[in-house]
Amino acid sequence: MSNANIPTGIGRRKVLGGAAAAVAGAAALAACGSDDSSESSTTASAAESSGDGGVLPDAASIAVGGGVVMDLVKTVVTHPADGEYKAFSAVCTHKGCTVSDVTDNEIICPCHNSKFSASDGSVIEGPATEPLASRPVSVADGKITLG
Description:
GO molecular function: 2 iron, 2 sulfur cluster binding; metal ion binding; monooxygenase activity; oxidoreductase activity, acting on paired donors, with incorporation or reduction of molecular oxygen
InterPro entries: Rieske_2Fe-2S, Rieske_2Fe-2S_sf, Rieske_Fe-S_prot, Rieske_Fe-S_prot_C, TAT_signal
CATH class: Mainly Beta
Structural class: alpha+beta
Protein name: Cytochrome bc1 complex Rieske iron-sulfur subunit
CATH architecture: 3-layer Sandwich
Shape: globular
Cofactor: [2Fe-2S] cluster
Keywords: 2Fe-2S, Disulfide bond, Iron, Iron-sulfur, Metal-binding, Signal
Helix content: 10-25%
Distance between the termini: 73 Å
Strand content: 25-35%
CATH topology: Rieske Iron-sulfur Protein
Strand order of the largest sheet: 1-2-3-8
Oligomer: single chain
């Protein structure tokens, strides 16, 4: 009796199917990513790597009406008015993407263009229907501290 007709190992179809699934998964993850501006990215990276619980390097580096997204701690810090700083979860309440930018007092989610208020995290424009969760923030000696 010969073993020539008994299949062994993984078949070509399974290998190709697995490769197609891996490519589709990578594309889906890339679509949920964000393209932060270099200014926001630089500020956030410095804050995240500081090792002191999320202290931003300088409150003055955030323009009034703007903000910075801190990817590692999933937090967005905003500067809605002179001398006023707010912090919110950076996770969009619509589908869980990370918000990417704060412009003109609006926190923007790149996945489906939901917009949130930089003052209170409320929804300005959907498809999100729930506000961003508020996080504690304080300012001392020109430094913003989360928590």
